[in-house]
Amino acid sequence: MIKRKIAFLLAVFFATVALMAAQKPVFLLWYSHLAASAAWGEWIGVVVHGLKLDLTVAGYITALPLLVTLLSLWVRLPDRPWRGVMAAYFVAVSVVTAVIFAVDLGLYEHWGFRLDATILMYLADPKEAMASVDLWTGIRQTLVCALWAWGMSWVYLRVLRLFDGERPRRRAAAGWSVAVLLLAGLDFVAIRGGVEASVANVSKVYFSSNLFLNHAATNPVFSFLSSLGDRTDFAAQYAFFDEEERAERFDALRGNGPKSGPTERVLRTERPDVVVVILESFARSIMDTDAAGEPVMPNLERLKGEGIWFENFFANSFRTDRGEVAVLSGFPAQTGVSIMKLPAKSRNLPSIARSLGREGYDTHFYYGGDLNFTNQASYMYATGWQRLTWQKDLKFDRPAADWGYDDALMCDYFADEVIARSAEAKPFLAGLLTLSSHTPFDVPYEKFPDRMLNAVAFTDDCIGRMIGKLKASPAWDNLLVVLVADHGYPFPETLMYNEPMRHRIPMLWLGGALTGPRVVEEYASQIDICATVLAQLAVAHDDFDYSKDIFAPAPPRKFAYYTFEEGFGVVDPTGEAIWDGTSGRVLRATSPELLDVGRTMLQTTYRDIADR
Fold it and tell me: pTM of the prediction?
């Protein structure tokens, strides 16, 4: 009887470890194209190193069976109630684990990191979040979830057969209670992550310079649940330097410092009408790709020669909400948080809309989807966009797709709006966010068999038609059009999420307000757009600390800066630096100076958030 209770506890713990470890080869096979270069020894290393967090998760799951077993030594109840409680518990654990595992498998290809509480920010509006999931993906991941939940439940319910709820004699109960408490102590060590000074965290399973293998070793249940209670002290994040040194270092980098020089004029007028078009997922790696011998973005390629093309331009992050803030507010993206989701903070950001509004510009932003998603509407209204037009305000002769009205409808409508606004006496700033090149890539267009490339080609076609319509109108002569992507895309699939090419994006300026075409070789990123545009309009950009005027002479130093979920990258003509915050490793650095630039930017960003 007593031995069966102990055997039950040991079986629960080690069965859980085995079930968690089994996720590793499934993940590696699911992403076999990323694991293809790994040797068999590295595959084994994923499982072995991953056991550290698998043991921790097993410790948490075994905690309730330990308590029930201890109670069964002293409380006389029939066997059935004990088993009923444990069966319900094991089924619940199986379902929760399966949901986390299935969602993680589906999201990793898009996000490039294992599931954590970041997803909850995007589930505030479940309808909009589900718009990213096409029917087949939803069915596939549901089947994975159901199969995994069934398998885990099957294992646990057979382990439950070992449990004996009969109460022993009191003398025996006292002695065996000590044994159960000793097991509880060992369970606590597993939960803690060992007896070392550092407690369980995802960096414990990192073992390779190949970040994909480190991610494969990470337990998604631990990654998600450990991030749920995170209450970030922003000021204390990334304390690379003491405050005095940080401030001194940032003063040398800031775009609005006293060393900033006058801009080089590239516009014929100081009061053009300004259009900013943010292109969903328009990665430079996709733009540079030919599919079946044809360019994916022929219109953008053609238009490069008609305007100002920025050759070395980078996104600041991997999500639209963070990219929008970088483009429209000149504020760097963060690693594990989105300031757009923090209204009390984001409303205090500077913005190009607010700055131009002070100069008498009308400001109007357009989107074919729902601007309530990720708090976009709140952010935009708070930062100076006077009017917003989105899906709820629009009626077209065909229904909206999952994300909203497609880019063909919106680009045509937006061009008409810009042309109409140009006839008014007041200058204006008009913004548009495209959406058709977002998953699930459902577009009324057939050019390439690859759904993603086909959707990007569709949006490129829409942009080409929109620019053609504007060029044929009187609005063109006084127009500055800024085309820029919101973020890059993992294309090809082997492109790791922390690599510079993952974040390299197109930016192109067009319009009759330009003095002429040219190619800009300077390294820059989305945060530099605000200062660059405002300087051309002779509008002060003193409140944009991070935004540098690309057409002004150095200093400040010209560089491109980006963040990913676990660290940062910096790129300039001298090379690059990449730092991973989970492991604390420098993955690549051509010089300590470039690495310190990234450290200064990251620490200052979080210090800034704390102060807002």
Answer: 0.82
Residues 6+ apart with CB under 8 A from 318: 111, 112, 487, 488, 497, 502, 503, 564, 565
Burial 475-490, CB ≥16 within 10 A → b, else e: bbebbbbbbbbbbbbb
Average pLDDT of span 521-529: 97
**Residues with Cβ < 8 Å from 118, sequence gap 6 or more?**
111, 227, 336, 338, 565
Q: Is residue 432's pLDDT more than 60?
A: yes
> Cα–Cα distances in Å, from 160 out to 15, 84, 87, 383?
11, 10, 7, 57
Amino acid at 533: V
Q: Angle at CA 522, nearest 5°, toward 518 and 526?
A: 100
The whole-angstrom separation of Cα 328 and Cα 350 is 9
CB-neighbour burial class of residue 37 (10 A; exposed 0-12, middle 13-18, buried 19+):
exposed
End-to-end CA distance of the chain: 62
55/15 Cα distance (integer angstroms):
11
Structure letter (DSSP) for residue 162: G
What confidence tens digit (pLDDT) does each residue in 295-322 have? Answer: 999 999 999 999 999 999 999 999 999 9
User: What is the longest distance spanned by two Cα atoms in the chain?
Assistant: 96
Q: Give the position of tokens 């979920």.
A: 565
| C-alpha torsion sign, points 394, 395, 396, 399 | positive
The tokens for 187 are: 């369970």
CA 410 to chain centre: 25
Q: Phi first, then psi: give them for residue 484, nearest 5 degrees.
A: -150, 145
d(CA 330, CA 512): 25
What was the pLDDT predicted at 257?
66
Helices and strands counted in the chain (H then E): 22, 14
| pLDDT tops 80 at residue 96 | yes
- Which neighbouring-strand residues pair with 360? none
What was the pLDDT predicted at 389? 94
For residue 155, the cross-strand partners are none
What is the average per-residue pLDDT within 176-202? Answer: 82
Q: Are 340 and 376 in contact (CB under 8 A)?
A: yes
Q: What is the DSSP string of 258-321?
A: TT--PPPP-BS-SS-EEEEEEETT--HHHHT-EETTEES-HHHHHHGGGSEEEEEEE-S-SSHH
Please say whether the beta carbons of 384 and 362 come within 8 A.
Answer: no
Our CA angle for 292, 496, 278, nearest 5°, is 70
Indicate if the alpha-carbon torsion angle 422, 475, 298, 315 is positive or negative.
negative
